[in-house]
Amino acid sequence: MKPSIDIATKIANALEVSLDYLVGSSDAVLEKALVKKITDIQKLSDEDKMCVHKILDAFLRDSKARAAYSA
Question: Which domain holds residue 65?
Answer without folding.
Answer: 43-71
